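Subject line: Sequence and fold of a protein, written as structure tokens
Area: Proteins and the way their chains fold up in space.
Start of record: The labelled sequence and token lines come straight after this line.
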Amino acid sequence: MARHEVRELEQRQMQEWGVREPSWTQTDSDEDLVIVYNRVPKTASTSFTNIAYDLCGKNHYHVLHINTSKNNPVMSIQDQTRFVRNVTEWKEMKPAFYHGHVSFVDFTKYGVKRKPIYINVIRDPIERLVSYYYFLRFGDDYRPGLRRRKQGDKKTFDECVSAGGSDCAPEKLWLQIPFFCGHYSECWNVGSQWALEQAKSTLVNEYLLVGVTEELEDFVMMLEAALPRFFRGATELYRTGKKSHLRKTTEKKPPTKESVAKLQQSSIWKMENDFYEFALEQFQFVRAHAVREKDGELYLLAQNYFYEKIYPKNRDRK
């Protein structure tokens, strides 16, 4: 009842002072929106990206895949310049959702007036590495006929760790930090404390929202609330769509406690896990102020602010 009265007061004030009621109808500002999803490999990024593809026709925006040569996440300075120009000036492709395995590009350095909205998803570092290890050997259910570069190697992840193999070495964990750190040389120096701090700073200052693979539905729900121009209908599509849990790595075997413990001894894991825990805490903080759970179901909180004491007063008001 109190909430209803507050809402009525808010509406009267908006009418009295000529404040426009917020709506999700298309505006000129909406039509200029650009989202960049610099997706980290093996974090359920294909599942999430397919939601964007499924919604683009209905919600009227463009989806563009950034396909770099040899999947190199680092762009040359000339390619960064071209990319920034494309994103900001390619009006025919706006509104747009760009996605690809590319490390963070700092648009501020190029003097653009309006930066894109960055989003991303990360995953528990060891879980991500295990998934990638088996993906290179057995592929997934997305393109089962495609031959992977490690196909035929039947060594398990545990056997690799026990033998000290290069494909499961702690250095292979160093990926999520540099993806957020960006295009500085130090970002790609394995075990760099500076890179870790830069990645944390970029996450909180440059990204609208960073989710985690383990709580992907909550991530989708909050994006729909914050950016309905792109994600209207995304939550229902995730829950019921056939592509919601697409791309499962085949033949994947969970690592033993011994293998996990061995990897966790490395300083590289400790730094990547530090970053993951930092991102998870930030995500849960944002979620706690946006979502509530009731009877096992999640729901978004209603608008919890309104305007009052608007000055100067309208002299023409009777």
Residues 132 and 159 are 16 Å apart (CA to CA).
